[in-house]
Automatic annotation (TrEMBL):
Molecular function via GO: ATP binding; ATP hydrolysis activity
Residue ranges, annotated region (Disordered): 358-381
Lineage, broadest ranks: Eukaryota, Fungi, Dikarya, Ascomycota, Pezizomycotina
CDD domains the UniProt entry points to: RecA-like_protease
Source organism superkingdom: Eukaryota
Pfam families: AAA
SMART domains the record matches: AAA
Protein name: AAA+ ATPase domain-containing protein
Gene3D superfamilies to which the protein is assigned, alphabetical: P-loop containing nucleotide triphosphate hydrolases
Residue intervals of the AAA+ ATPase domain: 183-308
InterPro entries per record: AAA+_ATPase (IPR003593), ATPase_AAA_core (IPR003959), P-loop_NTPase (IPR027417)
Length: 381
């Protein structure tokens, strides 16, 4: 890695003190059975060394190998293992400040900064070390929210509740009768598959510029350490001020009977939910199977109705507006959208998206002449 790159990396490391949302496209490191394993990720992350150590008190970082020579070649993607002690010596105890003020540091001082930072990866739901050189500012897409197709009044209510909970608008603090209870916002998104429930959670992430913390309900069904796992999930989401999204909740939160492991799981979840202070989005296709006690804790329910013809045209229009053709961006008139909706019938969002992907993968560039019409699109039929 060139000297200039090492200095810039050191400066960036000093700027990452505290908590920061970033995007990592490149190298991340995890410890597996005491060994450092390098993986490649493309994900939003949260840099937060202090919280990392709070959640992983037994985690130890490798020492700098002072006997090794730093590689100063031109390959900026060189493995960061060169910085680590191959003899496996570890740093123990609490990390303390060395008292150095970053504003007074010189270039040579930045060379001694750690090439990685501690944090959480939202795509893998794992604590990791991230290569500082592979971190960028998180980019948010306003178009994601603009393409959301649900009634504006319902969306406005959802947004107002979420902004209040995240502290983006002034509000009066509210507690339950028991201090610390009832401070969260629990939202239930329900309806048949493909109508945009998961997309709504993703759109809220982009619009509110807060990370989306996804958890599959199926992962919690047979968890032997369920109480600890649920506690950690809520603690992470609350600390990062993230939007917690638990998908397909009917698998985990369906009605209780008399006794059994499942009943205990729902009881544990309810108890932890009472003290959760963040935003929770539950999504399901089968709300009628939900446990009544869970439903009673929901602050806002958003039902996704079966799409009308106009709604389906909007779905196709949104997907086709992003499509590229051999002649440039797709241009689809309202008449062709109307014709397309009549041809394909009652497809939901997932089916429409899959259909376009399938067609895109199976079309070739059109050849000249009347025999070369492989590139004719469905909307032109």
């Amino acid at each position: 890695m060139p000297m200039r790159s090492l200095i810039d990396c050191g400066r960036n490391f000093c700027d990452l003190k505290g908590q920061h949302i970033r995007h990592c496209r490149g190298r991340a490191f995890v410890q597996v059975r005491g060994e450092i394993v390098q993986i490649s990720i493309d994900s939003r992350i949260m840099v937060d060394p202090a919280f990392f150590r709070q959640m992983n008190p037994n985690y130890t970082r490798p020492r700098i190998n002072q006997r090794s020579e730093l590689y100063m070649g031109s390959d900026s993607s060189a493995s960061l293992h060169v910085f680590f002690d191959n003899q496996g010596q570890r740093m123990g105890g609490q990390v303390k400040s060395n008292g150095v003020n970053p504003s007074g540091m010189k270039d040579v001082d930045f060379l001694t900064c750690c090439p990685t930072v501690l944090g959480y990866c939202f795509s893998e739901n794992m604590w990791m070390e991230f290569a500082v050189a592979d971190l960028d500012q998180a980019q948010w897409s306003s178009a994601t929210f603009e393409n959301l197709r649900i009634p504006s009044q319902q969306m406005d209510t959802f947004l107002a509740l979420a902004k209040t909970r995240l502290g983006l608008v002034p509000s009066i603090p509210f507690d339950d009768f028991v201090t610390g209870k009832g401070r969260g916002l629990n939202v239930l998104l329900y309806g048949r598959p493909g109508l945009g429930k998961t997309y709504t959670a993703e759109a809220m992430e982009e619009h509110l510029q807060r990370p989306l913390y996804r958890v599959a309900a199926g992962e919690l069904i047979h968890d032997k350490c369920l109480e600890e796992h649920v506690s950690n999930i809520f603690k992470i989401a609350s600390h990062f001020n993230a939007i917690l999204h638990i998908d397909e909740d009917d698998v985990f939160l369906h009605g209780r009977s008399i006794g059994g492991v499942h009943d205990h799981s729902v009881t544990v979840f309810l108890r932890k939910l009472e003290y959760y202070e963040g935003i929770l989005c539950l999504t399901t296709n089968r709300v009628d199977e939900f446990d009544d006690a869970i439903l009673s804790r929901i602050h806002y329910k958003l039902k996704y109705e079966d799409p009308t013809r106009e709604f389906r045209q909007q779905i196709w229009g949104s997907f086709l507006s992003k499509a590229d053709t051999h002649k440039g961006s797709a241009q689809v008139s309202s008449d062709k959208l109307h014709k397309l909706e009549g041809m394909v019938g009652d497809l939901d969002g997932w089916q429409a998206h899959s259909g376009l992907k399938h067609y895109e993968c199976n079309t070739e560039p059109p050849r000249s002449g009347p025999e070369g019409r492989q590139g004719v699109t469905l909307v032109n039929q």
